[in-house]
Design a protein that fits this description.
Length: 274
């Protein structure tokens, strides 16, 4: 390894683990979050040294990191403690598709893998372009974009964050709460009154409850929701949180594809009923 490059990296969130593996730099990873899901082999190969928003700093320090990678203000307290302990910390704070690209390129520079990072970004952009092209065909055929309600959590109801809303748009949908998606804090995206969702009449409901299985029948049985087109047409679908709720390659490689499939299913049902 080149002198001056980090050789013992701790990743406090899953997307940086995913990127380092994709860049062929997994040997640099000294520790991961217990919430890491991609790639699956990382959970077997790397020591788990933290949660997502909590950690015992001594466990992180025990793996002797020369760089810690973190994400967002949710990990600010951990990062402050690590900085006080003399550890170098880089905090990503992206919440958009463009931010995912920038994170990959920055991480590529940090580990001297700029060409591989650019190749990965180019591949992701090609996937997006293909999805947009397919979406345009669907929109032209159907005459409109389906209205989509994305539920990040069920109680309280929390709508989707920035990159999720963008993915819905790229896939050819209309996020009914696109205005709130720019609010990074989940508390700011709480929908306090179900009538607000019902009034927006989503054609498709996508749910991704982190760590909890989505039960479409329980969504359909909510009071007043029988008037919602998505409920009437059976267009309630789960998207696994690992596919879409982390701002990394998976959101594009798997999340975008999953949303596109859901909107294709809506179009097929609409064609059959017309």
């Amino acid at each position: 390894m080149k002198a001056g490059l980090p050789e013992r990296i701790v990743c406090l969130s899953t997307e940086t683990v995913e990127v380092l593996y994709a860049l062929g730099e997994a040997s640099r990873i000294a520790g991961i979050s217990g919430f890491t899901v991609r790639p699956a082999r990382a959970r077997k190969e790397k020591p788990k040294v933290s949660g997502f928003s909590t950690a015992r700093i001594d466990r992180i320090l025990a793996v002797r990191p020369d760089l810690v990678l973190a994400f967002s203000d949710l990990q600010a307290d951990m990062c402050a403690d690590l900085i006080r302990a003399g550890v170098a910390v880089h905090v990503f704070n992206h919440r958009s598709v463009e931010g995912i690209y920038d994170m990959i390129l920055t991480l590529g520079r940090l580990v001297d893998a700029t060409t591989r990072a650019q190749d990965l970004v180019n591949d992701l952009k090609e996937r997006v372009n293909r999805a947009v092209t397919e979406a345009a065909r669907r929109i032209e055929r159907m005459g409109r974009r389906p209205r989509v309600y994305f539920e990040e959590w069920d109680s309280p109801r929390i709508c989707g964050i920035g990159w999720v809303s963008e993915i819905i748009t790229l896939a050819g949908g209309e996020d009914i709460f696109a205005d709130r998606s720019r609010l990074g804090n989940a508390r700011d995206r709480i929908i306090a009154d179900d009538d607000e969702i019902i009034a927006k009449a989503p054609d498709v409901i996508l749910a991704s409850w982190c760590g909890k299985k989505v039960r479409p029948e329980s969504v359909a049985q909510r009071e007043g929701w029988s008037a919602v087109p998505a409920v009437q047409q059976g267009q309630i679908r789960e998207i696994k949180s690992a596919m879409i709720l982390s701002p990394g390659p998976a959101a594009i490689e798997e999340g975008l594809e999953a949303v596109s499939r859901a909107l294709d299913a809506w179009a097929k049902t609409a064609d059959q009923s017309s």
